UniProtKB/TrEMBL annotation:
EC number, UniProt record: 2.4.99.24
Family: Belongs to the glycosyltransferase 9 family.
Catalytic activity: an L-alpha-D-Hep-(1->5)-[alpha-Kdo-(2->4)]-alpha-Kdo-(2->6)-lipid A + ADP-L-glycero-beta-D-manno-heptose = an L-alpha-D-Hep-(1->3)-L-alpha-D-Hep-(1->5)-[alpha-Kdo-(2->4)]-alpha-Kdo-(2->6)-lipid A + ADP + H(+)
Keywords (A to Z) from UniProt: Glycosyltransferase, Transferase
Presence of keyword Glycosyltransferase: yes
Entry annotated with the keyword Transferase: yes
Gene Ontology terms, MF aspect: ADP-heptose-lipopolysaccharide heptosyltransferase activity
Stored Pfam families: Glyco_transf_9 (PF01075)
Native organism taxonomy: Bacteria, Pseudomonadati, Pseudomonadota, Betaproteobacteria, Burkholderiales
GO biological process: lipopolysaccharide core region biosynthetic process
This protein's GO CC annotations: cytosol
Domain of life: Bacteria
Name of protein: lipopolysaccharide heptosyltransferase II
Length: 353
């Protein structure tokens, strides 16, 4: 167990100890922050149970009392492991909030015998949850979708996610990379979902060239090891020295710090886009097959580019992983000049906290 931020339950003698079952995607984890903040504000000591690749997000949320990394394999039921962990947690929590809709996500609180277990109907979870909210239709905005689990005292509709680095964290990470504080831009050119969410590599290279020429700062290319070929292609197409490829070389906690300290960020609709928004960093977010009505970067410092049915593209949003027509014009037609202008506008407006 690792602490993260102030412990919500250290003050009063009587406190509700709550377990939050985290979603499995970085962006969804960020968008659960208003719910966490609401629970902490009303006196709940929130322990987050998260998969290892999501846990670092909760370690930079002020309302989290503790983080427990789950030992389960991605995509597997792991029934025995869930039962054993649940038995160890018996009597520890009074309330559980189950954010994923999958049946297996509700098993751990049930095995732990947590008296109040709150979530959406999801995948046939009758009996596993004591309070089941009706599944909303379509693709609802994710922040209010999660915040509704707080029920009484839920965050206002205007609530937006906020993250905060521990003191000294940014200085340590930037020093380890040989960078001056604020002396870089960051790109997140990948998207786990698929190529229909990825702005073309040549466009990212052109944007990097413009930023490097205008500001004299390097562009850090951030992402997972799987996104290394994308980053390598961008760096190869950009002017020499404009980009530094860090995909697959950093822990997520370090990538989060470098985003928080960046002069500005450019990204696809991805988890790192939401990280940048939660730190209030000036950013341009490039949407293709998905919709900013569903998962927008919730920050006044964000500029969203999305064709959204313009330019003779009635297929947007299709939410496909790969363009069914093979042209991905929803992203290819977003010119680098337009992205550069949007990011410069965000930079002039300054960061939002």
């Amino acid at each position: 167990m690792q602490a993260a931020g102030p412990r919500a339950g250290d003050g009063p003698a009587r406190v509700t100890r709550s377990l939050l079952i985290a979603p499995q995607w970085i962006g969804d984890a960020v968008m659960s922050e208003p719910l966490v903040a609401c629970l902490a504000a009303r006196g709940e000591a929130v322990t987050v149970a998260a998969l290892p690749w999501v846990a670092p997000v909760y370690r930079v949320m002020d309302g989290v009392a503790a983080v427990e990394e789950l030992p389960f394999a991605h995509g597997r039921l792991d029934l025995g492991a869930r039962w054993r962990l649940g038995r160890r947690w018996r009597g520890r929590f009074a309330r559980a909030y189950v954010l994923p809709n999958a049946l297996k996500a509700a098993l751990l609180p049930w095995f732990a015998g947590i008296p109040q277990r709150i979530g959406y109907h999801g995948e046939g979870r009758i009996g596993l949850l004591t309070r089941r909210l009706p599944n909303p239709g379509g693709r609802p905005p994710m922040v209010p979708f999660y915040a509704a689990l707080a029920e009484a005292g839920a965050p206002a509709d205007s609530a937006r996610p906020r993250l905060r680095l521990p003191a000294g964290r940014l200085a340590a990470v930037s020093a380890a990379q040989g960078l001056a504080p604020g002396g870089w831009f960051a790109f997140a050119p990948g998207a786990e979902y698929g190529p229909a969410k990825r702005w073309p590599e040549a466009h990212y290279a052109a944007l990097a060239a413009r930023l490097h020429a205008a500001h004299g700062l390097p562009v850090l290319l951030l992402g997972s090891a799987k996104e290394r070929p994308i980053a390598d292609a961008i760096a190869a197409a950009a002017p020499a020295g404009a980009c530094r490829v860090l995909c697959g070389e950093l822990a997520l906690a370090d990538a989060i710090a470098l985003i928080a300290g960046a002069r500005g960020v450019a990204s696809n609709d991805s988890g790192l886009m939401h990280v940048a928004a939660a730190f209030g960093v000036p950013q341009v977010a490039l949407f293709g097959s998905t919709s900013p009505r569903h998962t927008p970067p919730l920050s006044p410092a964000a500029r969203v580019l999305w064709l959204g049915g313009d330019a003779g593209l009635p297929c947007i949003p299709c939410f496909e992983r790969v363009c069914r027509y093979g042209h991905t014009r929803c992203l290819a037609d977003l010119a680098p000049d337009r992205a550069a202008a949007a990011l410069e506008d965000a930079l002039h407006a300054g960061p939002s906290h």
